[in-house]
Queue: 2 jobs
Job 1
Amino acid sequence: MNLKNKSVLVTGGAGFIGSHLVDSLILEEPEKIIVVDNFFLGKNENLADAQKNYNCLKVYDQDASDYEKMKTILDTEGIDVIFDLAVIPLPASLDKPEWTFKHNLDLTVTMCELARNDLFKTLIHFSSSEAYGTSLSGPMDENHPLNGTTTYAASKAAGDLLIFSYCKTFGIDASIIRPFNNYGPRQNEKSYAGVIPLTIKRVLNGMAPVIFGDGKQTRDYLYVTDTANAAIEIYKHKNTRNRVLNIASGREVSIRYLIEYIAKNLGCHHKPIYEPTRPGDVRRHIANIFLAEDLIGFHTSVKFEDGLKTTIDWYKKNMGN
């Protein structure tokens, strides 16, 4: 399977991972690429490169959880495949837990119903490693229990189970990508931002970096273009249908190491400020990626430190724009 001459829709396509996916999709020469984004966190400027490289890119300012409006878009555009990245992010669940859970589940229900009613052919749904919670026994494979500790994590786990139910009961054509901790240019640095852009922003503003907890909690970081390319490969390989695949580096990085690396790279001489542990914070994240290696030949192409240096340089140039 390939995407050449296909009609592709990306929900959340103006966001961090979504916009990088759009860039990668252009190289596949589809007939059309449609972006649906309500710009809760997405930005028009994230699509600037895509609009230069793909003149017929069409963007709908629309909440992807609205079934009737999404149906109208699909009827109009004649979509073959949806890459589903629209989401309310984890930090929002600490402020608005009920809304985050309900909205994320509504987004997934809408995609499943559109697929059940044959309004498009294939769904590639973006889940999250947060669904696992803290690793119970070393690298987590896809059979690791779903022990999420936030309503965001619960919404992603519930969405995955919902998709599997539609695959088994209604025969929809769907695969689930479960990315671990993505980083890279364009990651949101404002409301509900992640640790990397927040730390870069603080240091560039002359402030000390902040570490929540003891800094020994770990993450499995993956450069965003590796995730985008993996999603396309998952579409291309039919053996991924009705399955979930971890997409990660398989390397464990402590938050303390991450923040100290950023501070050193930016010439920061302030000692980190230690704050109380965030509610629901995962203690350990590291992925087993054997299944992705086996089914789609997945491998990482960007070393963590190299990708982080590229990310820092991008924010130095673009922060505040």
Job 2
Amino acid sequence: MKTPFSRRQLIQGAGAAAGIAAAGKLTGQGLFTSTAQAQVTAEKSALLVVYLNGGYNSVFPSADSYRAAGTFGVTGDNIMRDLGNGLIVDAPTFGTLLPMYALTHMATVGVRHGITAHGTAQNANFGDGSRSYALRLAAAMGGDAAIKAVQAGNRNTPGPRAAESGVSLQVITDMRATIAALGGATDPTIPDRTVGANALIASKAMSERLRATSPGMLTQLNEGYAAGITTLQKPVQVFDYNAMATAYGMQTTATAVNNFTSQMACAELMITAGANVVIANDGGWDTHGDRTATNVRNMMRTRILPPLATFINRMMNRPDYNVNVVILGDFARSLPGSDHASSLAATVIGKYVRTGTTGRMAANVQLPAGTPSCMGLWQYLSALVKAPPAMGANPHPSLILPIT
């Protein structure tokens, strides 16, 4: 019998299937009017990757590097905040707008990749040319979540995209599909969970022949079907979307992931639904000519830190979660003109982070020879989330607390 589905229809349905799969651990009474619920775990580890496309000025995680020459606007001690153990950050931004938990669980990690071209640096930060660091980590972390790796929003994640042990990068551009799959008993447009699962089973069977012709292209859809069907009846706990949206200053009916604030809300939603790794990409950080770092400070103050602080306050104080955040970009910004440096100083915040730095820049925005490259950062992150050392041993042992 001829299938009623076209290839285009299947691909377009992948996002909705992914949302339903993500919500397999979630249920609730209605779409926007009541609570949703999520499965409880002993200590759920997760990683939020905040990627600043274009670059990440090292004045934020290594402010004292520029005190002597007064570069990047570091004109006095009031521009720096000493967090201890050699870590000095930018006071007007990190030192003022991040919560105390972040300031006492923060480290700067050096990445000496030797690259000054955007595309090459972006790809190196996310993979080794053929395998994605983020997907390798998400797969190594395990768990039974329907979706383990998420791109929040439509800005593409650099680097390789090949699935790792069945884990692929799922793109969420609208949270509505996930929220709508929470049960919706009081919303007549949302089917009963059992009815929804049966509909997925029927849809999967009807499209099986066509899906088999392009298994690679339709990986996300295939995973969405399987995970959505098998996880719609998992144990649950309370999760309130309305409260979450309000906390981020969003309308409770707003579900599109189209700015950094909604990316942070999406990250919270997906981590609560069981995701291991969430990536939030933000653009506009190729800041040539920003000699005093005024532009990047303004972007950090107005666009990044307020919703990130909300995420940290809501997710990092929970005893049942081990949530970590890494902030990085293509490379640091060079002097004198805020151009392309050949190294990167990344910021990491998390429960098991020991305050300190392996990424203190020299005054000319260089890191010492022997500083690990991109994989070294991901090896450190792997240790923080308690994943098996699939990518090798942590080369930054001084920046980690004993893990229980």
